Amino acid sequence: MSNESKVHTTRRTSTAVDAAALDDERKPSIRDVALLADVALGTVSRVINGHPNVREETRKRVKAAIVELGYVPNMVAQSMRSHRSMTFACVMRDFTVPVLSMFVESMQKEIDGFGFSLMVASSYHDTKREIELLLGFQQRRIDGLVIATSSEEDPALLTMLREAPFPIVLLDREMPAELDSVTVNHAAGVRQAVHHLADLGHRRIAIISGEPGVHPTQSRLKGFGDAFAERGLTLEPELVRHATFARNAGYTETRHLLELANPPSAIVAGGTSLLPSVIQATRERGLVIPRDLSVIAGADSDVALLATPAFTVVRWSHDQLGKAAGRFLMERLDNPRLPQRRLTVDAELVVRGSCAAPRQTAALRT
Predict the structure, then answer these.
(1) What does the pLDDT look like over 147-158, one tens digit per residue?
(2) Residues 274 and 281: beta-carbon distance below 8 Å
(3) Measured between alpha carbons, how far is 106 from 4 in angstroms, rounded to an integer?
(4) In the CATH hierarchy, which fold is given to the domain comprising 3-80?
C-alpha cells in the first residue's frame, strides 16, 4: 500500500472516530444522568424501570437530570433486560360510564412516574369476553392487570385469575380472596341513604342493584338490610330488585316497581350507570321527582349533579382507588412475596334535592 493510501485511510478512520465522539456528545448516557443527579448507576436504572423502592426526592432529582440532559432510555433494550413489557391493563365493564374513567385516569397518573403505559378494554360484563381478554394479555406479556370482573363465582374465570402469570388487582371485587383488591364499602353509603329516607317519613323504600354474586350488590344489600333492622322497618322482598348493572335493567326494574299495586315512595338506584334509566321510567309514568318519588343514586355523576333537581347520591373516592390499584401493582412487581393487600374505601351520602317526604306524610304535616 502506498504512503498516500495510508494517509487517506488514516484520515477516514479519524473522521469516523470524530463523528462517533460527536454522536456520543449529542446522546447523553445513563452514566451522565447518574453524575448530574449525584446518584449511583443502579439508582438511575431503578427510576427508569419504575421500582417503587426509591425515595421520592431522589426520583425527582433523577427525572430532572434526564430532562435536562435530554436522555432517552432504550426502551426495547430495557424491556429485554427486565423481561417486562412496561405495560399494565385495566378491564372495566363499560368505559362510557364517566366515574369509571376517573378511576383509570388516577391509576394512569400513579404509574406514569414509573414509565409504565396503560392498556384499557371493556368486558361488557361478559365472563367469556373476560376469559378471552386474559388469554390475550398473557400473549402480549403485560406486567399487571386491574379488573372489575362480571362474576365472583364462575369457576373458569376464578381459576384463570389465580393462575395468571402477572399480578392482578381486583376492582370492587373480593374473589379470588388471595389477590390484591381495592373495594368500596357500599354498605355504609346505602345504610346512610335508608336512614335519610326514613327520617323523611318513607317506609316503602326499594333498591335496584346488579347481579347478586358480586361485591357491590352484596355490600349494598347488606347496608340496606342493616338500616331496615336498625329502624324497625319491614324489608319486603318485592322491593329488592337485582338483575344486571346494564342501563336497560334499571329501566325495566323501575317500571316493575312503579307498576306494583302498592309502589315504593323512594328508590335507591344502587348502580353506577342506573340513574338515567330510572329517570326515564319515572317520567314515562308521569311522576315528578321528588314530589311523587324520592330517588337516591348509587354513585355520583354529571347526570346526578346537573339534573333538576340535583340528585342525592352515594359517593366514594375513585381517585383513592385508582392510585391504590396502581401502587399495588408496582409494589407487587417489586416484591411478589408481599402479603395480600386490600384497601376498602367508605361510601358516604351526599344530600341534594331529589328526596322529599312522601306525599301522604307531607299531607299529614300540613
Answers:
(1) 999 999 999 999
(2) no
(3) 67
(4) 434 Repressor (Amino-terminal Domain) (1.10.260)
